[in-house]
Amino acid sequence: MKRKRIFLFLAVLVLLSSFAWPGFADDSEVSRATLAGIKGLRVVVEELQPNVQKYAARFGLSGAQIRRDVEQKLRESGLPVVEGNDWLTLPGRPALYVNINTHETEKYWYAYDIKLELRQLAVLSANPQVKTLAGTWSISITGLANIGNLNLIRQDAGGLAGRFAAAWKLVNRNK
Predict the structure, then answer these.
(1) Within 10 A of 73 (CB to CB), how many other CB atoms are there?
(2) Number of domains in the chain
(3) Among the four residues 28, 40, 79, 116, which has the most C-beta atoms within 10 Å?
(4) pLDDT (tens digit per residue) in 21-32
């Protein structure tokens, strides 16, 4: 009976490893409206967690590579990407923040969650003197990968960047 449970668990795990699930996504008409008028942005990507870095390098998977992939998708869609202090000159200081969390669920198996969030300056209506960076649009995806297919993380991050680019183009097509 115990062998049957283990086999069933492994079968489900293998089946799920080939899928990624869309998680929380705030890509609504209201959140898309916050993308209107954005003429450029900065991309910020956190480095991968140490628990997956040693295996991820085999697939060209790193925070720097994810950033290059995301920036390329944005540029291909016509959205300029700025670096360094040039970001400070953009109206609203928009930044696309990418966070990838990983957790080793079993030896060589990693659950991951990727979140893309557009952050830009927002003014508090209760206190208009206060300006802060706030998330105005976001999307995420959760998946499972083993050390043999960690490239799924890079592919999913690229897919989310493509969704962001499509949302941006939708609201800026006539501008």
Answers:
(1) 22
(2) 1
(3) 116
(4) 443 447 778 888
